[in-house]
Amino acid sequence: MTNTTELGILKFNLSGVYSHSDQNTLNTTNQVGSFFGSEPPMVLQILTMIPTMPVYDASTTSGYGTYNTTTQGEMYSLNMVGMNNMLQRSTNVDRMLLSGTGEVDFGKLLLLKNQSLKYKLNVSWDKTYAKDFNWVPTFDFTPFYTNTIAKLDEGYRNYTTALIENILTYTAQFGKHNLEVTAGQTYQNDNYNTLTGHAEGFAEPYKMELANGESTVSSSYSSQHYISSLLGRINYNYDERYLLSATIRRDGSSRFSEANRFGYFPSVSVGWKINKEKFFKVDEHIISELKLRASYGVLGNENIGEYAYLQSVNRNYVYNFNNAVVYGVVSLRLWMII
Fold first, then answer.
1. Which domain of life is it from (predicted)?
2. pLDDT tens for each residue of 156-167
């Protein structure tokens, strides 16, 4: 859904998208291979299934066919119809994306000539909610493919991203001089939360809920990450031939400690469009643009993971003092300052 409105010097654009997906897939690597080691691809299992193995067999505990190792040998072959029907794996994902832009043309309000002054606001909100479900009941397909303990894994994932940008742009043209000045502010916040549970030992008839397992384990994780920036940029050119650009950014990331959270990143570049000179006689169909450019800048990198600046310790580290074992603390992150 998108809506655009213009009211004189004001312009608005709003959009919203919602999506829902249900995925129900069987993965032999994750669900079957986790019990029996490395497994061939599912299609290969189907193609190599021995022809004398029945798909259904009422005499077995699962109701699906298997083979007799006494008469058919030690064949490592799965009844994939049975595995597909008994194992359950699903992922449900809901996503909502809302975004909007607003623009104010101060140039029209101030009746500027050969100049413009515009303010633009960008906002967006993106939320994804996912539910994972993985069920493995007890089964006995062959002497080699059995599972005696029913297992259930459930998980919930929540992702939220919010973005806001404020940009003010001034442009002017004075004869052959062209100038553009931009000032801006951006802020992006990412939140991630997970909650997972694992249960084993379900009694039949199965009620597939974590609380019904004999043993349960749960875990949760959350993280927050934000980037805050201020920026300024000047672009100048004379007659579209001689170019100058200068930028300064002040970026801050939550992945660094408060003492080192913000940094300044300047850059500058100059250019010369040689093809715009009168002495350049080459047809533009052969060479459409020939530009000489030099630049210098400082870049930053925040790809260090969340909370990497925090110190953590292991409280059960084993030391040896005077030929005796002593349990103590050891740092899990060692920083070396040179």
1. Bacteria
2. 999 999 999 999
